[in-house]
Amino acid sequence: METERLQKVMANAGVASRRASERLITEGKVQVNGKTVKELGTKVEHQDIITVSGRVVEREKKVYYLFYKPRGVISAVSDDKGRKVVTDYFTSISERLYPVGRLDYDTSGLLIMTNDGELANKLMHPRYKIDKTYLAKVSGIPGNEALKKLRLGVRIDKYKTAPAKSKIISTDQKKKKALVSLTIHEGHNHQVKKMLAAVGYPVEKLRRDSYGFLTLQGLTSGDYRPLTRDEIEQLKK
Question: Which residues form the RNA-binding S4 domain (predicted)?
């Protein structure tokens, strides 16, 4: 049976921050199955009943979705300017979802949506080097030299990017445009746009086609589907 630290469960359920949850525990305000618990290392299972100052803590089941984010949508749960956000597409889902990482407002493509904070943090950690493939429509037609620079890494914003995989998917000689596939494992701000601009080919349109082994197959813009059990296990590995 999977166990988790009590303060983490409380934080995930929205009771309070982890630090504040620890304080509630040491102050003796938390009970597990009717017994007051003051030990910070206490582990709980899903069926355990947790109460804080007499109120039962509602624990959400963990959910995971693959979402095809459209352009013109913010990768956030709310927006102070009233613009459309990714959670607007999940109004029929009762759990509180948030995106893993972000895609720019004008970038479409694959986003993972979940309420599993621990997995989200791991997936975003640079240490795990998860490949992400983007399809970029660029002005101009990149030659071998530009593609080679991308593969070796280019200097942007005072740092050099890690080597990327790059290839031309198609070209339009008449309009002088090309579709370029770029695979990176970093996640710096506007990185793909900056990399292509750095080699002289500004991005006109951008879509994230894959995230690790996950792809957009079978989805159209604005669609989502739950991840399968196998996919969730593979992500956790």
Answer: 4-66
